[in-house]
Amino acid sequence: MPTKQRLLLRGQLPGAARPVDVLIEGKRIVRIAPAGRAPADFGSPAAIIGPTLFDIQVNGAAGVPLQGPAMRPENVARIHERLAAHGVSHWVPTVITASLEEMEDACRAVALALRERALAHRIPGIHLEGPWISPLDGPRGAHPAAHVRLPKIKDFDRLMKAAEGKILYTTVAPEIPGATRFIRALRARGVIVSIGHHDATTEQIAQAVDAGARLCTHLGNGASAMIHRHRNPIWPQLADDRLAASFIADLHHLPAPALRAMIRAKGLERTILTSDCTPLAGMPPGGYDLFGSRVELLPNGEIRLVGTDLLAGSGTLLPQGVVNAWKTVDLTLEQAFACATAIPARVLGVRLPHGMPRPGGRANLVVLETESLRGEWRAHVRAAVLEGVLVAKG
Predict the structure, then answer these.
(1) Mean pLDDT of 279-300
(2) Domain topology for 7-50+355-393
(3) Where are the domains of the chain?
(4) 327-380: pLDDT as tens digits
(5) Average predicted confidence (pLDDT) for the chain
(6) Is the peptide bond before 139 cis (omega within 30 degrees of 0)?
(7) Is the torsion defined by CA of 15, 16, 20, 24 positive or negative?
(8) Which residue from 14, 87, 209, 227 has the highest number of Cβ atoms inside 10 Å of its Cβ?
């Protein structure tokens, strides 16, 4: 990694009206002042300077997987380097539905990686997205049907043992037999429960929340393609204020009007932006094998199961989601950043070592430039700084 250095960043802070210069020395921000005439190391008066991000659902990146035959403990560090270069300083590795043996191997590999203190500081735990989800086509998404299972606490304990106690949250379908009892058992173990990849009724969702579920996994996705206009799983999740919700803001999983309406309904304090990025994020367009299925990565970043209109995770990283939410939802830039930093940290009980940039604060910053191309906003990372160290420049 590069050595620490003195850096001058120029851009607009979330919530500020005019561009500023942010001076970094060592690990700290020593001064924030109106932009001057001296050349900056990175940024411009039109750039954005914000805190580095926290992504609660990462399946891989840049061709590096988090499970399967190619999974190794060193994959975690490689993915972290890729995410850090895009301004994501904290993240949650996601292990999806597979055989218990494969999931166990993935949990073990992540746990081994987290024995390194520097990585453990950035990765608060593991997300299990399955195998306790709906077996139905549609709600199951790209998860392999052969490995969907009914919930048994002994299976969870087996995975938790492999993870060395580091499972942070788990996605469960409320309608599968035994789900309510399973949710209670997970909560008793201190594990956060999210509901997702399901086709539950209003009553089943309420039972899950009563049992302790507090989050919705990528709400609006992992659902049937055809639903009743009133009696469907989405409305009760939006309506229950006990549930926070993550949203994939790549504008493929949720078109802009849907994303805007759902965030308005859920409320800022319960809204989390996530990428759900896969190992294909950052790869060239084309056909790939992903999670045991054949998929196509399109030039616009969409990943679809071949021959269907079903999405299979995202090819977009979280800074783009923040910009999308800012530009297409009635969120301020400061609010959009909060949905990818402080709010997910609060919901998951994670302490981030930094907040919005301020004098004396830790130097964990990302510098973004935005541009509009054919009506779509693009985010370009110009620099990323972690603890005063320049880890990327573009």
Answers:
(1) 88
(2) Urease, subunit C; domain 1 (2.30.40)
(3) 7-50+355-393, 53-348
(4) 999 899 999 999 999 999 999 999 998 899 999 999 999 999 999 988 889 999
(5) 95
(6) no
(7) negative
(8) 87
